[in-house]
Specification:
heterotetramer, A mainly alpha (357), B alpha/beta (397), C mainly alpha (293), D alpha/beta (280), C: 293 residues, mainly alpha, two-stranded antiparallel sheet, two-stranded antiparallel ribbon, 11 helices, 4 strands, 72% helix, globular, D: 280 residues, alpha/beta, Rossmann fold, 2 domains, four-stranded antiparallel sheet, 10 strands, 39% helix
């Protein structure tokens, strides 16, 4: 009996997560089709999808694996530009926009995953704040390199150079990525539907991973590294798995993001964006996947909704951020909340704390 | 669970807000999060809605703000003339492509008919594609990258393109025999700076300038520019070309002064405003030459009036961005008046007439007389080379 | 001669990093939090000094003192309102709050002082020292900054080693619970740490802007991150480590620009940092704490 | 208690004796082991051989180096001198998780559970290398994953049941009572399918009746799983009653080895250690 109850409980969390995402998609898609959404809201849909995927994937590293990463946007950037180059190269080869988008997402993910391996090998030998600073450093390195990269396409194929002059494009050649300016004239392929599919895929991978033996091992490493080693778990291998899966998903999100705008520049993928994603994760709750989904959405829309405040917009956003952090994390508030919930618990059915939190 | 609950509540609030947006059939002006229109509470019938965006927060805010102020001042003056009435709204785009699209969408929801922005190139490239797709006329005051106007036939610039400035600078330096050995210090993380630098290098090879030092910095490490200056000195440069903004140029000048290095300095329009920087010692900029379309200390009455009004209204001296924005407003006004544009026309209709006007008209503004536009959207105006002497610009021929 | 001049340039920016890193490392060592708002407190300090000297026409010393007082008060307020309620919560939560504070300070500064950069007037008035017939220049700012960072380093070391308050800080740093049991007021000690850290930030702000004159609301953020990197480089929590890390980072950065590439200097500097951390995982002067099994 | 075992596992009716291990390869063979920490010799010349079903004890005063020896045996520390052979294989240079795979598992003096996870999950982490299911399969939750998970669940429940912990299977490990946590650590160690387990002060913090039960359980573990047990314990009653062989260490060196009876009468031991605790 107990077993079944537990089974249902773990799965009810997953069902709720998928459910909320699917319902939100259906509702928004319906409203969008019925022309009931304003242009700006329509415009938020794809980036929100990308940020949800980024937050969920970062949560895998920060929440589940317990490592502070400050360079997540670097993987996003790698994925974005890999995806843009892929899509540009497939133009004329693959006719379907959707097909090109999917190929771009895949390539973006794979390239970012490879970057994840390259970064992970040295990084994961470190711990705590040292790991944090090294991920930050890698993020900045990736940004610096992409910001000086020129990629063009002509009939001979793809050309890569470190300055416009060295690109030597043949006749009819097209510059895809142009250093500091980034990619311009990108054909916008991303759709809300693709974003929704990517979220589902991400949830599927991450939730399955968490609930499998791999996920247990990753969490075990987080909770107690020495004990995990003592029961035969290769700590570095599992930190690595979490890190690379996370980079792969971030790369896919990056490709979705990059192909949603006709201009994307490398400066977007620096420390500030990494921090923004981290804020989504921490606010949503460490290891709480549904929390990441919701907080990414809310925190993306919040500053946009505050546009009417003009000059006071960002300062109020900062105040809201601080207040929400205090409210959700302060031990004192937690105490008060637990008293309140205990009282509420008397009225409603008593609830146990979910295992996934 | 509690946290989740709190978040869900917040999400619910946001959704409710959206519902508010959605249910309002007309593009939401005051529904989006209790938003108030930028100017009057009740928009008067018959105003043409002009939108713009720029970085109003963070690093580049000074430029976004200058554009906002320039546009605000110009449209207030225009509205006071009593003819066509305009309503202006400027949104923050943080000099970021994603935010620029969000800002653009917000402006479209508001009912924007003409886009008088964005301020920076990256943002403008993203917004230009949207404008081209929607058929909204766009005239950017300061997004000078050549890629911006390639987005569509309806995207125009009032500033020089970066390649033009690069070529112009190299030609000027060469034809005036200003240097034997040239050094360049540029911002490799900034498209404006890289754009000028790239073309300058190409043209330098053509006209036979010897460039012996090419030193870059990025937005992340611009705190220390002394090494770049020392390298130019080591290389024996007698002229240092600075295709960068005023704040960094001030740093370069300070560094050079400290190590007693006195080459000629040559800059582009980004350097404008250096004299107006609070606390800057103008003596450091003595002899600096720059290509600029605008001179705040000019004796031209129109410019003097602009500077006086601007300073009175916003408490600081206008720079080239503000002047460009001011010109944008008047150019739009001139075109609208000439074409008989009315407020009830759709953005697409206005766009058609504006394209026709801009490719045929000539405009006199603060930043140049007899400006004309090519069909690709690039402006043709004469760059003005000036030299700083005793804290003011002096024309160089 | 070029090499020596680059070295001096490196030490110059490095000592600015060092002085910021000292504040970072001290707060980290005792409060165990990455105070990402530290760079913005620096910016506030620089603005205060700028206002006092440029608007009120008072001497630079007064400017520094006012900046120190304002920053100290600001540090205590920030700590009390934003960090103290999170005592005992996850360190990541405090990190995010610190980022919120950083956004707040930057935007508040823009509202108060505007977005236009101001050119900071150096507080150093004596002439640069010229060597080798003017081929080598050591500016007054370099001398003052190095002196200041050495003095601060020594003072901090003495303070934490000799005084009652300093010892309490060390106790809190080692084991908060045990310190509490020994009758140390942990909250008060941490507030004190922030007060000192913020006062240091004010000095760092004035010296940063004396070396790099551009003053705008985002002035503190990038040097702040660089200094944080420097603190980790030297071994975060270690006071001489912060000093060493700062100066070395400055030298590496300058030498990279001078001899390798200015275009890729960010990438190269961070690569060096990564390599150093791989060889010495706790930084140059940090101690590797072996977890007791 | 016996009903658990009857239901799940075959319990041998006879008691295994040390003589049965004669002629078999020792499960743990330690030769001349030593480690220095910065010039300070913590352990030196440590030799011990443990047969496949032997229960041995390691005793000594506080700070004698007992836990250090456990850390050396499990690969947490790399020895400065000497070698550790587990089932005949030298562990030299191996990281802890590889040493574990050779067949050695342990518990910790200061409990190290995965406190945010349930008791059941703790055991399943222990079974990690026993669960045969590929990474792709677990990512995609293929049928083989479900099969492997089901088997793992059943086995984990059996093990929990064996130590009387079935009722707390779904409780977060961190919130369990102390004594239960100690037993859960033993279950987790057993889950790695070891041929020897090291128990670091298993009775610490237990009351006499709990200790009594633990003694039975230790014997039952050996008898059920046919594995060797090596334990550190200060409770002399437990050590003398459960262990078949005892090694006494002081200042990192073995000062005596033998049966409980021999140890009890060894004057060196009495002087170094038992002297104080004669009353036991």
């Amino acid at each position: 009996m107990n077993k079944i109850k537990q089974y249902f409980k773990t799965h009810s969390y997953n069902i709720a997560t998928y459910g909320i995402v699917i319902i939100a998609y259906v509702v928004m898609q319906y409203l969008s089709n019925a022309d009931m959404l304003s242009r700006s809201v329509n415009g938020y849909l794809v980036p929100i999808c990308a940020y949800i995927v980024l937050a969920v994937s970062l949560n895998l590293v920060v929440g589940i694996s317990g490592e502070l990463s400050l360079g997540h946007a670097g993987f996003m950037g790698v994925g974005a530009f890999a995806g843009i180059v892929t899509a540009a190269c497939l133009q004329g080869v693959v006719d379907s926009d959707f097909g090109r988008l999917m190929a771009a997402l895949l390539v973006g993910g794979v390239v970012a995953g490879i970057a994840g391996v390259i970064v992970g090998v040295p990084v994961l030998r470190l711990r705590g704040d040292y790991l944090a600073i090294v991920t930050l450093a890698f993020g900045e390195i990736l940004k610096n390199i992409i910001g000086n990269l020129y990629i063009g396409k002509d009939e001979t194929g793809i050309r890569v150079a470190l300055s416009q002059a060295e690109l030597h494009l043949g006749a009819g050649g097209k510059v895809i990525l142009s250093g500091a300016l980034g990619a311009t004239g990108v054909q916008k392929l991303s759709t809300f539907f693709a974003g929704f599919l990517l979220i589902l895929f991400t949830l599927f991978v991450v939730l399955n991973l968490i609930n499998s033996k791999e996920g247990r091992a990753i969490k075990a490493v987080r909770d107690n590294r020495i004990a995990a080693e003592s029961v035969g778990i290769n700590v570095t291998a599992f930190r690595m798995k979490a890190f690379v899966v996370s980079a792969f998903l971030a790369g896919m999100a990056g490709a979705l993001y990059g192909l949603n705008y006709s201009a994307v520049s490398a400066s977007k993928f620096g420390f500030n964006t990494s921090i923004d994603i981290l804020v989504f994760v921490v606010l949503g709750g460490m290891g709480n996947i549904l929390g990441s989904v919701i907080s990414a959405t809310v925190l993306y829309v919040l500053p946009e909704a505050m546009r009417g405040l003009a000059d006071y917009r960002m300062i109020l956003y900062a105040v809201v951020l601080i207040l929400v952090m205090l409210f959700t994390w302060s031990p004192k508030v937690k105490e008060i909340m637990s008293v309140v919930t205990a009282k509420l618990g008397g009225i409603f059915k008593k609830k146990e704390v979910g295992t996934n939190e | 669970m509690k946290k989740l609950f709190a978040l869900l509540m917040a999400a619910l609030m946001v959704v409710t807000m959206f519902a508010g947006c959605g249910s309002a059939e007309t593009p939401a002006t005051d529904a989006a999060g209790g938003e108030a229109p930028a100017t009057d509470a009740a928009p008067t019938a018959g105003t043409i809605k002009i939108g713009s965006s720029g970085p109003l927060t963070n690093d580049y805010a000074v430029y976004g703000k200058a554009v906002e102020y320039g546009l605000t001042l110009a449209f207030e003056e225009i509205n006071a003339l009593g003819g066509l009435q305009f309503e202006l709204r400027v949104e923050d785009d943080e000099a970021d492509a994603e935010m620029a699209v969000n800002a653009y969408n917000t402006l479209m929801d508001w009912g924007m008919q003409i886009m008088a922005g964005p301020t920076t190139s990256g943002s403008a490239a993203a917004a230009a594609a949207e404008c081209a797709a929607d058929g909204v006329f766009m005239l950017t005051p300061s997004a000078s990258d050549a890629a911006v106007i390639t987005a569509g036939d309806n995207v125009f610039q009032i500033c020089f393109t970066d390649p033009n400035q690069g070529v112009g600078s190299a030609d000027f330096i060469s034809s005036h025999n200003l240097a034997t050995k040239v050094g360049v210090i540029y911002d490799s993380s900034n498209p404006y700076s890289v754009g000028i630098y790239t073309k300058f290098m190409e043209q330098a090879a053509v006209v036979g300038l010897e460039v012996v030092a090419e030193e870059a910095f990025t937005a992340d490490n611009k705190a220390d520019l002394s090494t770049q200056v020392t390298k130019c000195q080591e290389a024996g440069c007698d002229l240092v070309f600075l295709p960068i903004y005023a704040a960094e140029a001030a740093q370069v000048l300070t560094c050079a002064d400290k190590i007693d290095y006195n080459p000629a300095f040559f800059g582009c329009d980004g350097l404008d405003g250096i004299l107006a920087t609070e606390g800057f010692d103008p003596a450091l900029a003595e002899g600096v030459m720059l290509l600029t379309p605008f001179d705040a200390s000019s004796s031209d009455p129109q410019t003097q009036e602009f500077v006086a009004n601007y300073t009175a209204k916003f408490g600081l001296e206008p720079n080239q961005f503000a002047a460009d924005a001011y010109d944008v407003a008047y150019a739009i006004y001139q075109a609208c008046t000439a074409a008989g544009v009315t407020a009830d026309m759709s953005a697409e209709e206005i766009c058609e007439t504006m394209i026709a006007q801009f490719t045929s008209m000539s405009f006199d503004g603060l930043t140049g007389d007899g400006m004309t536009w090519a069909a690709d959207g690039a402006v043709s105006k004469l760059p003005m080379a000036v030299k700083i002497e005793n804290g003011v610009y002096v024309g160089v021929e | 001669m070029g090499f020596l001049q680059y070295l001096i340039n490196g030490i110059s920016i490095g000592s600015v990093y060092a002085i910021i890193a000292l504040g970072y490392t001290m707060v980290y060592g005792i409060a165990k939090m990455l105070n990402f708002a530290h760079g913005d407190v620096i910016m506030v300090g620089a603005y205060m000094s700028f206002c006092v000297t440029n608007y009120l026409g008072l001497p630079a010393v007064v400017g520094i003192l006012v900046a120190m007082v304002v920053c100290t008060v600001l540090g205590i307020i920030i700590e009390g309102l934003a960090y103290k309620p999170l005592r005992g919560a996850s360190s990541l939560a405090v990190l995010i709050t610190a980022i919120g504070v950083s956004y707040f300070l930057q935007n508040a500064a823009q509202l108060i002082w505007g977005s236009a950069p101001k050119n900071f007037t150096s507080i150093v008035t004596f002439a640069p020292i010229k060597l080798f017939g003017g081929q080598l220049t050591i500016t007054g700012e370099v001398i003052i900054t190095i002196l200041a960072s050495v003095v601060i380093m020594v003072a901090l070391t003495l303070f934490t080693g000799k005084t009652r308050m300093g010892k309490a800080m060390r106790a809190v740093s080692e084991d908060r619970a045990a310190a509490q049991l020994m009758g140390i007021n942990v909250n008060q000690t941490i507030s004190m740490t922030f007060a000192i850290g913020s006062a240091l930030a004010a000095i760092a702000g004035v010296l940063l802007c004396s070396t790099v004159p551009t003053l705008q609301p985002t002035t503190g953020s990038m040097p702040g991150i660089r200094a944080f990197t420097a603190a980790v480089f030297g071994g975060i929590g270690s006071i001489p480590g912060a000093m060493l890390g700062g100066i070395l980072l400055g030298i590496i950065e300058t030498m990279t620009k001078a001899y390798l590439s200015t275009q890729f200097s960010d990438a190269i500097v961070f690569l060096v940092l990564i390599v150093v951390l791989l060889v010495k995982p706790a930084g140059l002067m940090g101690k590797v704490v072996q977890e007791k099994v | 208690m016996n009903e658990y075992s009857r239901k799940m596992l075959k319990v041998p009716t006879y008691n295994l004796l040390r003589e049965q291990d004669m002629g078999k390869l020792p499960v743990l063979d330690v030769r001349n082991l030593g480690i220095d920490f910065g010039g300070l010799t913590a352990v030196d010349s440590f030799n011990i051989t443990i047969g496949p079903t032997e229960i041995s004890g390691l005793i000594g005063p506080n700070g004698a180096g007992k836990t250090t020896i456990f850390n050396l045996l499990t690969g947490v520390y790399q020895p400065t001198r000497g070698s550790v052979l587990i089932n005949g294989i030298d562990t030299k240079g191996m990281p802890t998780h590889k040493v574990n795979k050779l067949g050695i598992a342990r518990t910790f003096q200061n409990i190290r559970l995965f406190s945010e996870m349930t008791a059941l999950d703790n055991v399943k982490v222990g079974m990690h290398n026993e669960i045969k299911c590929s990474f792709v399969s677990s990512l995609l939750h293929l049928p083989s994953y479900h099969k492997a998970e089901k088997a793992a669940n059943e086995k984990a429940m059996e093990l929990l049941d064996f130590m009387g912990l079935a009722d707390v299977a779904n409780v977060k490990a961190g919130s369990l009572p102390y004594g239960v946590q100690r037993r859960l650590e033993i279950v987790r160690a057993l889950a790695t399918n070891p041929s020897i387990i090291l128990l670091d002060e298993p009775a610490a913090g237990m009351n006499p009746s709990e200790t009594m039960e633990l003694m039975h359980q230790i014997r039952r573990i050996r008898d059920t799983f046919h594995i060797a047990i090596f334990l550190i314990e200060h409770d002399m009653n437990l050590v003398m009653n459960v262990c078949e062989a005892i090694a006494v260490v002081n200042y990192g060196r073995i000062i005596a080895k033998g049966t409980p009876e021999e140890i009890r009468q060894n004057p060196a031991v009495i002087e170094a250690y038992l002297g104080k605790e004669d009353g036991e």
